[in-house]
Amino acid sequence: IAALERRPGIRRVVENRPVQIGKLAMETFRDQFDTVAYSNNDGTVDWNSSWVEYDPYGGYGASGGWVYVYDGMLTFDYAWDEAVSRSFNLAGAPDATLSLDWQTYGLDNGEALSLLISKNGNTSFVELDSFGGSDSGTTSYDISDYMSSNTTIKFANVGAYWESGEYAYIDNVQIAFEDENASSQSNNIIEMDVRDKFNAVAYDNNDGSMQWAGGWIENDAAGMGLTIGNALITNGALQLDNYPLTYTGPSFARAVDLSGSVSTASLSFDYTTGSGVNHSDQISVEVSINGGATYTTIGTLEDIYGDVSRTGIYDITPYASADTMIRFRVSEGYNNYNKYFRVDNVRVAYTGVYDADYVALVDAEALHENGINGTGITVAVVDTGYWSHPEIDNNVNGNLRVLAQYNAISGQLENPTANTDDSGHGSHLNSLILNNNTEGGRSGIAPNANLVSVKAFDMNGVGSYADIISGIDWAVTNKDAYDIRVLNLSFSTTPQSYYWDDPLNQAVMRAWQAGIVVVAAAGNIGPDAMSVGVPGNVPYVITAGAQFDSFTPHDQTDDMLASFSSVGPTVEGFVKPDLVAPGAHLSGVISPDSQIALLNSDKYAGHDGYTVSGTSQATAVTSGVVALMLQYEPTLTPDDVKCRLLYNARPAQEPNGSLAYSIFQQGAGLVNAYDAVYTTAAGCANQGINIANDLAGIEHYGGLANYDPNTGEYYILGIDGYAWSDGYAWSDGYAWSDGYAWSDGYAWSDGYAWSDGYAWSDDYAWSDGYAWSDAVTAANK
To answer: Could you report the per-residue pLDDT of 500-522, keeping only the tens digit for each?
Structure first.
């Protein structure tokens, strides 16, 4: 994305460094004990495990015994050597604070409830505090010295046997920390996990931030099925037993792809046993590095007596691979009716470089499966040039698909696969649009489309107006020779005039008029209003803002608008951006010798890919979607394409149906490739404006946005006279891009304060059941 520099006699567009973003910094582990359970997760992040009860006289779980949950509190009663502990992951956090409410009643001298902490799980503990007598309070502790991936706190009674009438209560246990991996802007290395909480009776639950590589595989001679035999799901857990005796060692195994793990990986789980379990019963915890061909035993759960509730945690870093499998197996015993082993909350946690699954986010995977992959459509990318790579040079059939390279700076045609990109910006865009995934890397949105590369920016991302215009004009002149249907413009610069007077915009409008679908970046200088740049401020073209998936590609409930994404309306009153697309931490191939790669070595994501963020990337994703649409229906005009994209975009909405983000922030919403391809919508874009008259200077146009100086709000005046500020939905059939003949009346200015009347809050629901939340995310600009 670019910013305009003024020099005597020349305009230059300067591409900024890629934007780096993360999710909100403050996170919490919390248990309010509102439910009678040891597995409550009331914070923003899940604990590693449930509370583990230690009771030498036989624990009864959260609902009974001498340690239990009652009346919204963790309760200690008649205690003697009882304790509970719970672990959590603070790896990478710069600091952390533990806070809690406590109350004691009737404890004699020498009797107390001790608070302990461990950096290494249950190996060794240090006492932080103790609570005695009859007292209460709220306390907090700096626990930064104890941070690890398996930090554990424990509450234990000390001193003599507590008699009747002696109690201790704990409530609102919270660990607050800043998630440095997510918020620091320095890298995309974050904590990831796959998890199964067994909330549904199914073998394919995915409750973590990432997905398992497959479902649970059952080995059970007594009956293969979810609810029968020696291996089944019951009481919200996986259960193994060997009754009646089968001599086959019943087991459960599940695969996880740990090829992206860059440091540590761990397996954790909660387990309980039946009342008849004793020293003769064993469960083997096993891991495979080769997809189950061979297993290594990493732990044996034995010497268990009666019904216990415990947590197991194992380091599986040496076994991290694309084909890692974990397995629980009856290795001895468990051969009576009252002997069983139940495992719950199975979690594999690891650190890795995050790579957003932008193909899935825009619903393009199903189109690829249907053969809609951009075949026969040429996308021209005006940027920093081209880097030759097998996944870009050739289409999915192995045929060369780079039709031409034009250097607008020198005015010369280059060899189609010559390495002309010293920046890396253009190569990254090419990859997002076109990657063919034949090298085991990643797929682009339109992996079988063709490419024309137009170089108009140098290695530092600097390009003059003259060179950019020359590149666009060349693409228009040669559109029929190379069948150019899409023009990708992933740069932006501050407007210096009305859209129709800007020479770069005039070149863009000529391309649209010639039948080329132009997709332009909104800009990276949000979230201020009226920050959409040239050429994204051209009312005719498709302008893309950026969406951020909060590092959870399979969970749309925490997706949000990227705060760097520029915001409308334009000076002329048009709603921009038109839509948003994935634009955060997207991985694409870049030469390791390019400027972006050299300056961002920590963004390396494997397979020659680097993760980059910005509305440039959102623009490339949208261009790929347009290629899919044109393959399916080649006769679509640019206005048709824009109509269908906007009509089928999915706005982020609150549960009551109002918009979670203003239309000036998200436009029509998140682009959806599948719906845009198969829709028949028509006549819903660029109504009331005439590009021929605009270019000829016969008339120019203003959009439908208005400004209320009394409230400081921008709004759209609807057909019925109602002023929509943040509640106007595209699906109402009213075209936001419609305009009216420009007059010398009211003109927008940057001097107005901006408000869209929208209060940021959580849990906004997409119109189709998806959701966005946490409306603001930190960004470096």
So the answer is: 999 999 999 999 999 999 999 99
- Distance CA(122)–CA(51), nearest Å, equals 12
Q: What is the pLDDT of residues 190-238, one digit of tens each?
A: 677 899 999 999 999 998 878 899 999 988 876 677 877 888 888 899 8
Nearest to 362 by CA among 591, 147, 520, 586: 586
**Cβ-Cβ contacts under 8 Å for 635 (sequence gap 6 or more):** none
Q: Which two tokens stand for residue 517?
A: 């679908």
Length of the chain: 781
What pLDDT sits at residue 241?
A: 85
Q: What number of other Cβ atoms are within 10 A of residue 371's Cβ?
A: 10
Within a 10 A sphere around the Cβ of 127, how many other Cβ atoms?
12
For residue 607, indicate whether it is catalytic.
Answer: no
Distance between CA atoms of residues 426 and 461, nearest Å? 10
Alpha helices (H) in 667-768, listed in sequence order: 673-678, 691-696
Which of 616, 662, 725, 737 is the catalytic position?
616
Please report, to the nearest 10 degrees, the dihedral formed by the alpha carbons of residues 39, 121, 291, 199 taken in order. Answer: 0
Say which of 281, 344, 363, 383 is annotated catalytic.
383
The C-alpha atoms of residue 10 and residue 468 are separated, in whole angstroms, by: 12
Distance of CA 404 to the CA centre of its chain: 35
Please indicate, yes or no, whether the overall pTM of this predicted structure exceeds 0.70: no
Task: Let me know if 303 is a catalytic residue.
Answer: no
Check if the beta carbon of residue 164 is closer than 8 Å to that of residue 103.
no
Active-site choice (368, 389, 425, 585): 425
- CB atoms inside a 10 Å sphere around CB 697: 9
Query: Quick check: is 85 catalytic?
Result: no
First to last CA, the chain: 10
Determine the pLDDT at residue 246: 60
All structural domains of the chain: 2-22+356-681+692-780 (3.40.50.200), 26-178 (2.60.120.260), 189-353 (2.60.120.260)
Reported as a single tens digit per residue, the pLDDT across 251-304 is: 899 999 987 676 678 999 999 888 888 888 899 999 999 999 999 999 998 877
pLDDT of residue 432: 95
Question: Has residue 136 got a pLDDT over 80?
Answer: yes
pLDDT digits (tens, 9 = 90+) for 403-452: 999 999 999 999 999 999 999 999 999 999 999 976 555 789 999 999 99
